[in-house]
Amino acid sequence: MAGMTAPAPWSSYVALGDSFTEGLWDVVDDDARPDPEMSAWATANPHAPETRWLHLRGWADLLAGHLADRRPEGESVRYANLAVRGKLLPAVVTEQVPVALELEPDLVSLIAGGNDILRPSVDVDAIADRLEDAVVRLREAGIAVLLATGVDAKGSMLISSTRTRVGIFNSHIWSIARRHDAMVLDVWGMRSLHDLRMWSGDRIHLVADGHRRVAQAALVGLGQEPDDAAWDDPLTPLVVPVRDRVTSDAAWFREHAYPWATRRLRGRSSGDTRQPKQPELVTVERRA
């Protein structure tokens, strides 16, 4: 447990990136939206206007809590999350990295590129260069940096065609980390994420258990002991009848894939007009 692990050396943490780090769809019901069905509704309606008022928690928020628990007695962690869904890597570097530098945190997670790689015309080497430039700026400011590999999309109807591009980008991630003494959250290597039950109805964003497991993987990437030794154990295999699978695939294409492709053709993003959910550093107290 946290009390038996080495103390976390970071007193402030800023998370940068896109929807992966923003926390879709780990929905936390609050006084504004107390509906117990809200999490399921949000998963089924990720682009409905009402979702902009939901309190979304994700792996980065959970990680901030874990780091706070590992601070010495009487100390806490200050945390900000600047990630916005739909952002491309150049926008993350241009819009979020300068703000992070102004906040002067001890630790930054910089995870982007997934939206870029979904575009067939992407230049993977070019976006890796942009990422490395950002890492250099952060490291020169004395900030510890956590990067992340892309997910292994083997078997995914939507994004398995990007697997080669993700693999090349991952190679860049490991090389950038080695050159600049950064750390890596190895999402590609997570066996548990091959299970569809870790993913929301859109098959691109994690559900609560997926975020919980990624937060544990982030601790490992930071050189910390995980709270849960079974954090990446696969779920018991689920047998899905062929008819149910075909029905599910058809519903997914109609409700998620087609609207997603339509927005891309129109040059729109799910993050258009959205602001970061936590733009300022706030204190996360130790729970233990």
Automatic annotation (TrEMBL):
Region described as Disordered: spans on this chain: 267-288
Organism taxonomic ancestry: Bacteria, Bacillati, Actinomycetota, Actinomycetes, Micrococcales
Basic and acidic residues compositional bias, start-end: 269-288
Record domain SGNH hydrolase-type esterase: where: 15-213
Protein name according to UniProt: G-D-S-L family lipolytic protein
Annotated Pfam families: Lipase_GDSL_2
PANTHER family: GDSL-LIKE LIPASE/ACYLHYDROLASE, PUTATIVE (AFU_ORTHOLOGUE AFUA_2G00820)-RELATED (PTHR43784), GDSL-LIKE LIPASE_ACYLHYDROLASE, PUTATIVE (AFU_ORTHOLOGUE AFUA_2G00820)-RELATED (PTHR43784:SF2)
